[in-house]
Amino acid sequence: MLRPAVTPDQRAMVIAYLTEKIGVSAVSLVGHMPYEAAAIVRRERFAGAVLYTNYRETSIEICWAGEAGWATRQHLREIFAYPFLQLGCLRASGCIRRSNGASREFAKWIGCREVGVLEYEYGPGEDGILYSITADKCRWIKPCKAQTNGQSRHG
Known about the structure:
Blueprint: E1 2-4, H1 8-22, H2 26-30, E2 35-42, E3 45-53, E4 59-66, H3 73-86, E5 91-97, H4 101-109, E6 113-118, E7 128-134
Parallel strand pairs: 4-5
Antiparallel strand pairs: 1-2, 2-3, 3-4, 5-7, 6-7
């Protein structure tokens, strides 16, 4: 089950996990913007984590990291239900290091498509590849119209 990080300590633990797995600082990961985070915990240890940032009504950015096999089909339904069903976003996007072949293949497998290159996103010679998935093409959620009811948990 995907566990939302609710308390400041839980949020800090998820950010620490992601920064270690991805190899960036917390400031580089979330800056000073509002965010939501959730962890996948197995046997009281992190198996994976998801970070949602830069929510703008119709779009949101997602960052993920985890151990091998961290995201089950149920986890993916929960991961995409938040932006597409709860927030009513039309698109979710994320940037992955060009050198991170495993994460890039995972992004393609779950239905994201490569939409661009962000030069030097991770420093000199460290390009990022931008991936995107839209609510209408996301196979992890049931087809439905994006709903915006003015209520959001994000932020």
